[in-house]
Amino acid sequence: MPETLYQYTSVETLAGIVASKCLWATRTCYLNDTTEIVHGRELTCSAAKRRLTMNPNEEPTGWIAERYAVPPPPDWSIEWVFDEVGVVSLTALRDDLPMWDRYAVSATGVAIGFSSAWLHQRATVNGLAVCPEFALHSVRYEDQEKLALLDDTLAFFHRTLEARLSDPSWEGDPSDACFGAAQSFSSVLACLKHPAFASEHEWRLATVSLSGWVEGAGKEHVEVASWADPTFTCPIVEVCMGARTDAADAKQVEDCLVAAGLNGIPLIKSAVPLR
Length: 275
Fold this sequence. Notes:
alpha+beta; six-stranded antiparallel sheet; 41% helix; 19% strand
């Protein structure tokens, strides 16, 4: 995992992030490629069926296979959950020309550097639950890599649910636990993309949220990975200004960092040569 993951965005979005002390995940229906979830669903069915061929008694995998089937069972449809997936798009690329042009308002925005260790720790801690707050994955572009990720995730949910369902002190409903796993699993689908985007070296923080969606800038977002709790440090480690930003933009960025008590964060200028 790279030491720092970057979000290329606008100066206004940076101001909103530091003010709210959280990242904002965009609903997948507003992404450039809205077919990602559909593609991931098809691959999930393939991966689950392959596991069930070798392990027919792997009940959690069977539940996910049934819920993700097309068409799904009428009494336990999971399709509505696919609309509740939100993602934060990050990249391992620092100061990259194509990323500036595509995602940072043609290099008039910023690249926010986040500590990948901080994000990984939060995802790992929450991942001990059947329904974690969010998942953090490097995006898979090739089918073989996608199937490997899906297989690993199915195995994780199987181990987690098997331990929970066999625990005599647990008094929950097994159906609810398996449904929660199927619901949570859908966040993984957002980490599977077409090979044409492989040059972006993307990482995605993905979450499933049944409430809390907020409209803004023509999209819907939901709060995720908050550091408002004083027990969490701020994960921002640097802010890189786009090559086309001016003194007024730099002043706005500096002011919003100072207002949030983050005046110690390095503020650097892009070295990409733009005219």
